[in-house]
Amino acid sequence: MSLKLYKTSISIFLILLIDQITKYLAIKFLSPDRIIKLLPFLNLVYVENTGTAFGMFKFLGSGFFIIIALVVTGFLVYMYFKDTQNWFIYSLIIAGALGNIIDRLIYGYVIDFIDLHLKNLHWPAFNVADSAISIGIVLFVYKNLKK
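-> structure tokens emitted (147 positions)
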């Protein structure tokens, strides 16, 4: 196994592990009617997201999102093998996609629990997998715009 493939595999595993542990803790210690205020701009909440990003397209159903996420993940794995220089970027996005696929397969929805806000303006709740995907996409766009 090449060093990059090893690092990619370990990164995906660790991100998935952190994602699933934090979601387990959200299930265990949070409930829809309980908010834990950590900082003036950060709460922990419990949200069952049956849609996609920001809860959109709920009417399409979980099966649709699983299929789309699997296709995208397969494409990202293909892209990784064509472009191993960006192994960390692909690790973030693949791990995030897999984390949310696991939720949909087990629960039929994605567990979100991070609530960023500015006074009464709340960003839609998200999770570690969503963060990994977002960071990976930002890094991907940045690297490609830099060329």
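The chain has a mean pLDDT of 89.
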